[in-house]
């Protein structure tokens, strides 16, 4: 940690970029190297020079990286999900891991509603037809969100923000979260139900859960079979939570009427049959890609990493 009486500037590595406001905070306290896009082998060869590492989702902070980082005191994830960081290895080596879980909430929640509206009103198809010189008004029949039931799996910070916005559309919001008590789910804007009841009742299902061993493949063929026929799925959480082959099959059969996907098991996924499906609205993991969210994220993670280096109390310590 930094000696407060005889401070030495820490060396901080950025591998996936960071907004300028965050970099300015870091530069005021340390030596910052921005090596955005650094390959994995180069990261292994250089990490020993640094006291802190700040990443996004691209960089994989493996056990090998942590072992090579002999000076490493803290890894900061500029965002929410930490599934690209080997938490067990970090814990074993005494490396602190922090994230910035609050900064992107509004942007991801708004993006979730945007995907729902795009599916309901067939906006991508309408745009494509107009750009092709068509006037396809009669065949672009959509549906309203009003009165539909939205099932939210994961009713924490982001799920709660989605529930609040869905209520403005007069949707009926139900929620499932095994880590929250019923009163917390209600406070976050959803009526608590079991997962089976959510599957049976929801016209739309939105996923707001991390990727873990418990959640990987949660939405598989068996789960989809229990859903209301014609359901629409939205995922702005993490790729891997949905079994993509099972989803494609359900889209082909009509069991799932549409899907709004911002995340994929393999990123980038390429022009897969799922991405190309006419009833899928696909986006390249842009839920947090707003100017406002990026500025908040940069400020939050910069300050949290510096807190860790100074040995101060942390707001968002993972390990």
Structural account:
The chain has helices at 20-27, 40-46, 63-68, 87-93, 105-121, 123-131, 157-168, 182-187, 195-201, 221-225, 244-253, 273-276, 291-310, and strands at residues 11-14, 31-34, 52-55, 74-77, 96-99, 149-153, 172-176, 191-192, 204-207, 231-235, 256-261, 280-282. The chain is 37% helix and 16% strand. It has 13 helices and twelve strands. It is α/β, with parallel strands linked by helices. The longest helix has 20 residues, at 291-310. Strand 6, helix 7 and strand 7 form a beta-alpha-beta unit. The model has no long low-confidence stretch (mean pLDDT 96). The strands form two sheets. Strands 8-7-6-9-10-11-12 form a seven-stranded parallel sheet, with helices on both faces. A five-stranded parallel sheet has the order 2-1-3-4-5, with helices on both faces. The chain is globular, with a radius of gyration of 21 Å. The protein has two domains: 11-103 and 292-310, Rossmann fold; 105-282, Rossmann fold. Helix 1 (20-27) runs parallel beside helix 13 and helix 5 crosses helix 7 (157-168).
Strand content: 15-25%
Count of separate DSSP helical elements: 13
Report the CATH topology name of the largest domain: Rossmann fold
Beta strands, count: 12
CATH superfamily of the largest domain: NAD(P)-binding Rossmann-like Domain
Radius of gyration: 21 Å
Roughly how many Å apart are the termini?
16 Å
Query: What does the main sheet amount to?
Result: 7 strands, parallel
Number of domains: 2
Class per helix and strand makeup = alpha/beta
Strand order of the largest sheet: 8-7-6-9-10-11-12
Residue stretches low in confidence (pLDDT < 50, at least 5 long) are none
**Which CATH-level-2 architecture of the largest domain?**
3-Layer(aba) Sandwich
Range of helix content? 25-40%
Mean pLDDT across all residues, rounded?
96
Order of helices and strands: EHEHEHEHEHHEHEHEHEHEHEHEH
Identify the CATH class of the largest domain: Alpha Beta
Shape: globular
């Amino acid at each position: 940690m930094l000696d407060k009486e005889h401070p030495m500037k820490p060396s901080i590595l950025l591998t996936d970029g960071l907004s300028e406001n965050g970099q300015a905070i870091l530069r005021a306290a340390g030596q910052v190297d921005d090596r955005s896009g650094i390959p994995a082998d180069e990261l292994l060869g250089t990490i020993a020079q640094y006291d802190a590492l700040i990443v996004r989702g691209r960089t994989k902070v493996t056990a090998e990286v942590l072992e090579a980082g002999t000076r490493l005191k803290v890894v900061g994830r500029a965002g929410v999900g930490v599934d690209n960081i080997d938490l067990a290895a970090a814990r074993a080596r005494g490396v602190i891991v922090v994230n910035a879980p609050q900064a992107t909430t509004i942007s991801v929640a708004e993006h979730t509603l945007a995907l729902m509206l795009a599916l309901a009103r067939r906006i991508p198809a309408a745009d494509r037809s107009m750009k092709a010189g068509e006037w396809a008004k009669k065949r672009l029949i959509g549906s309203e969100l009003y009165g539909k039931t939205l099932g939210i799996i994961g009713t924490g910070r982001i799920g709660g923000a989605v529930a609040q916005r869905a209520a403005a559309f007069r949707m009926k919001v139900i929620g499932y979260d095994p880590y929250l008590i019923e009163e917390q789910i209600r406070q976050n804007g959803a009526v608590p139900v079991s997962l089976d009841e959510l599957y049976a009742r929801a016209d739309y299902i939105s996923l707001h859960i991390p990727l873990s061993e418990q959640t990987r493949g949660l939405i598989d063929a068996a789960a989809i079979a229990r859903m209301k026929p014609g359901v629409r799925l939205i995922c702005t959480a993490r790729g891997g939570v949905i079994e993509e082959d099972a989803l494609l099959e359900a889209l082909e059969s009509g069991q799932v009427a549409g899907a709004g996907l911002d995340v994929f098991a393999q990123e980038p996924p390429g022009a897969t049959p799922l991405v190309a499906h006419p009833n899928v609205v696909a986006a390249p993991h842009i839920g947090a890609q707003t100017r406002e969210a990026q500025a908040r994220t940069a400020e939050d993670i910069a300050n949290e990493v510096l807190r860790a280096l100074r040995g101060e109390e942390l707001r968002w310590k993972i390990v």
